[in-house]
Structure formats: C-alpha cells, structure tokens
Amino acid sequence: MVHKSPLDDPENAAFAWARYRRLMRFMLLATIGVVIIALGLLYTQNEDISPHFFIAVALGIGFSMMLMSALMGLVFLSNGTGHDDSVDNRLPRRGKGDEAD
C-alpha cells in the first residue's frame, strides 16, 4: 500500500518550500561571505596572481557551497515534512538458495 506524502497537501508543501527558499537565501549570504573572505586572504598573502585565478576560486567555492546547500536543503525538506516516512521501501526477502546477480 502506498502511503500519501505530506507534500501532496498544498498547504504543507507551500510551508516546506518557503522554508527551503529561506534556507537557500541564508546559504547564499554565507557563501558570498566565505568567497569574499577567501579572496581577501588570497589577495593579501600573494602578490602576483592572475585575475583568472581569483575568478576560478570564487566560482569554485561558490558553486560547491551552493550545490552542497541545495542538496542538504532537499534532505532537510524531505525529512522535516515526513515525506521520507511515506515511502514504502520493503524489499522482498531473499532465500538461502537465491544467488546475487
């Protein structure tokens, strides 16, 4: 029997997605802060660095942090709404004579 997900309710879904967007806005601000600090440290510690290096560092840190934030935010959204509990993940049992594929 398939259980109904709490995200099927429009009111619960709207609340959950609003919370996710709030988390992503906070992480965007944190990411911008980390990128500025990293670029500032690089600028003060090194003298002859190409501008391309600064661009690559900013994009690398920014993309990595935002991707990790988005994926962890989806994990929090799924667990926090009870969507994980609605999944039926019972697998059939294997007997002693069954072989692995």
What value does the average pLDDT take? Answer: 84
Give the beta-strand count: 0
Pattern of helices and strands:
HH
Content of β-strand: under 5%
Q: Which sheet architecture does the biggest sheet show? A: none
Structural class: mainly alpha
Q: Share of helix among residues?
A: 55-70%
Q: Identify the overall geometry.
A: elongated
N→C terminal distance:
27 Å
Count the helices. How many? 2
Which stretches are poorly predicted, pLDDT < 50 over at least 5 residues?
none
Radius of gyration: 22 Å
Task: Please describe what this structure looks like.
- The chain has 101 residues and is mostly helical.
- The chain has a domain of 54 residues.
- Helix content is 66%, strand content 0%.
- It contains two helices and no strands.
- The longest helix has 36 residues.
- The radius of gyration is 22 Å and the shape is elongated.
- It starts with 9 loop residues before the first helix and ends in a 20-residue tail after the last helix.
Question: Notable features of this structure?
Answer:
single chain; 101 residues; mainly alpha; 2 helices; elongated
Compile the SSE list and pairings:
Layout: H1 10-45, H2 51-81
Helix pairs in contact: 1-2
Outline:
The protein has 101 residues and is an all-alpha fold. It has 2 helices and no strands. The protein has a domain at 28-81.
